[in-house]
Amino acid sequence: MEHLLAEYTLDLTATTAVDAALDSAGYVIVAALTKYDVETDKFNTSSVEAVISKAAATAPQTATIAKSTIPVGFFDEARQRLHPVYVVFSPGFP
């Protein structure tokens, strides 16, 4: 990704206006906070799920890329629940 940002002219937009953004998006990058709840021993993935759900409903042809901390198996479950949706995980660490 760093190479693309450094070498190519890209048409990127960051926004909180989800409907307007999804109207013409080729990709959706989700970088949402996922707090860890020590009492339930789980991550709160509701913010990530909300964006994926909105993208699936509004623009199902759009690829959704998540850059958030999520539990193992999260995307397999999301793909099954939100079919058809193309969602991939891109961890923020090597």
Short description:
With 94 residues, the protein is an alpha/beta fold. Helix content is 35%, strand content 17%.
Distance between the termini: 13 Å
Strand order of the largest sheet: 1-4-5
CA radius of gyration is: 14 Å
Coarse shape = globular
Q: Note the run of SSEs as H and E.
A: HHEEEHEHE
Instruction: State the low-pLDDT regions, or none.
Output: none
Helix-residue proportion: 25-40%
Beta-strand fraction estimate = 15-25%
> Which sheet architecture does the biggest sheet show?
3 strands, parallel
Q: How many beta-strand segments?
A: 5
Q: Could you report the average pLDDT, rounded to the nearest whole number?
A: 81
Strand-pairing-aware structural class: alpha/beta
Please tally the helical runs, counting DSSP H or I stretches of 4 or more residues.
4
